[in-house]
Amino acid sequence: MIQGQNGFRTDLISTITTGFFVFFLCTSVTSATEICPKSNFTVAFLHDPPYVKSSSPINSTKKNGLLYDFVQSGLNHCFHQYNCDTKAIEWRAVFSEDRLSSVILDAKADVAIPITPSLSSSLTEELTNSRNHDVTLVTVVKSPGLAMVIDYHACKMKIEKLTTSTILSAWPVCAVMLLLAGISGISIWALLAAINGSAAEREARHQGAHVTTYEMASKMFDSLQADEVDGVMLDRFKAYYYLDQLKNDHFRVALQVDESLEYGVALVDKGFPELTANNGCLAEYLVNSNHRLTRMMKHYISPVKPLGSATDTVGVLSINSTANQHLLIASVCIYVLFLVCGLCWEFLYRRNHFNLFKSTPRDQTTSSLPLITEQLAEVQEALSKLTAQVQKIQESLQAVSSTDKQIRNSQIDSTTSEMSILESETAT
């Protein structure tokens, strides 16, 4: 009797336990069915590498962008948590920031990516003015700042040409400087930047650049490759991504500006608050899964080669400069030309000078002997005449000297007689 009662109690307990389990299971299934979205869960995305690098829904096994993959991982996590079917997720591409903004404000999507800094500021203003509390903006990625990418080879050639033309156009000044003190140095820096985003534009204008705006980063690099601009300034992560994709060894990061840029996700609460509300599953996942985002980042952000002043730049007056090499070659050629001209002139001058004083050959002396004899006779006759004239001059000089002596003697005699007369008179 006692054994029968124990068996009855055991069966009753097992029946009650089974009933509670079935009730809990049914309640969970019913609750999950009520929580899961009744229609497609829409995710709107805009092509913006490296955050979203797809313009149409792509196979989930591929790398579709940093934010794309991160949001997809969060959706899979939350859908599995609430036992919802991930096939209800619909990825919808948009093709402009304005269209993405209207999709968010009109609640046509549950999630929207990427929310760029410029789009975030405009959405914040719109949501504040309209007092819309159904949209939550979650910051996911913080870029360290801006990067200016240049084609250093093209910039170097332009600076060399500008320097050379400046020197050639001002050669009198340079000549005076060389004569007085020499050239101390020339420094030329030019910047033309193409940017995308208000923060980059402010910084570029602050640096004194002429700014041209582009809607897509890919067009910026197309213009840089076509030599339409001298540099592009954009988000540092985007710059690293495009430099890795383009594989152009002439592109270098010439300037880095530390100004934090935030990229995030817009969550629109339109019927699935457990997932898209301010404190929903997806918002918590995006905020608390930074380690997963860091692991994903290595697939999209690669180290790049910076601009090295010692290896990638050449001084405007350096011998390694192509323009200066051409100028040096031209100077050497001019010097050699002048040297050759001088040697030729010296050779011709010495030759003509030697011909003027060249001695007469012996065979020519024999043929001109009568002429020489005649010339000698003329010289002898001239010498004879000169000798006769000299003798006449000597005779005239002798006559003059004798006359002078006679005059002197007569004067002496007269003087003597006068003195004797005076003496006699004195005596008397």
Automatic annotation (TrEMBL):
<keyword id="KW-0812">Transmembrane</keyword>
<keyword id="KW-0175">Coiled coil</keyword>
<protein>
    <submittedName>
        <fullName>Uncharacterized protein</fullName>
    </submittedName>
</protein>
<keyword id="KW-0472">Membrane</keyword>
<feature type="transmembrane region" description="Helical">
    <location>
        <begin position="12"/>
        <end position="32"/>
    </location>
</feature>
<feature type="transmembrane region" description="Helical">
    <location>
        <begin position="327"/>
        <end position="349"/>
    </location>
</feature>
<feature type="coiled-coil region">
    <location>
        <begin position="376"/>
        <end position="403"/>
    </location>
</feature>
<feature type="transmembrane region" description="Helical">
    <location>
        <begin position="166"/>
        <end position="192"/>
    </location>
</feature>
<keyword id="KW-1133">Transmembrane helix</keyword>
